Amino acid sequence: MLQATPVKLKADSVKLNYYNDRTKRDLSVLDGVDFSVNEGELVSIVGPSGCGKSTFLAAVDGLVSINGGRILIDEREVRKPGPDRGLVFQQDSLFPWRTVLRNVAYGLEIQKAFSREEIAARARKFVELVGLAGFEDNFPNELSGGMRQRVNIARALAVDPELLLLDEPFAALDAQTREFMQFELLRILDRAQKTGLFITHQIDEAIFLSNRVIVFSARPAKVKEIVEIDLPKERTLDLKHTPRFMEIFRHIWRLIEEESARMGLLRVN
Question: pTM for this one?
């Protein structure tokens, strides 16, 4: 009998609102978000601009507190940031005065659980994993945008998180580098055997990377639909031009278009 794949992340009726100083009213951002991510999956979240995708990711990381429901990582409720989650932002957050190796080592240093030799060895391992062997002693200003994001991913993975959270990590990259980094992310997560939650505005990127795509409704956000991505596991560039890929793209586009109209947006971002 086959064993069920363990659930890595569970969002259980997650609600979040906060007081808006400008309008002097409560603003409801999340309204009962429900879904789960299984171990080893990469799941993307898409939705209209301003619907609460990044806010939800911040809640999963423990950076913002929710007002209702629960967020569970390996059945443990999230109450604050922790080493079981690694977060990669849209803009790289590297320390300009640290080399590539020392940027990757930063999270290990603040944990104070390893010797200096162990930190150096582990940091070097993840520099190699993301394809930057030979650049250990370079500084961030000597790297391209794609290389800097690989350093960010290596730093997040070095502390051995259970879940990698990625908030539009390729949005600032040019189109060619972005496509290259999509392949790199799949390779890195497969080799590191990690689970990922990915935020993007790009529908084709979400489909290409993901096992499933979560479509958020207009704010206050809830899950409008969970779209299974029934494409070959082996991702190739040609896959984006297949009839099935385009069929899934059009379906998700229509879902977001409906919600964008509810928010009064003229077009889908």
Answer: 0.90
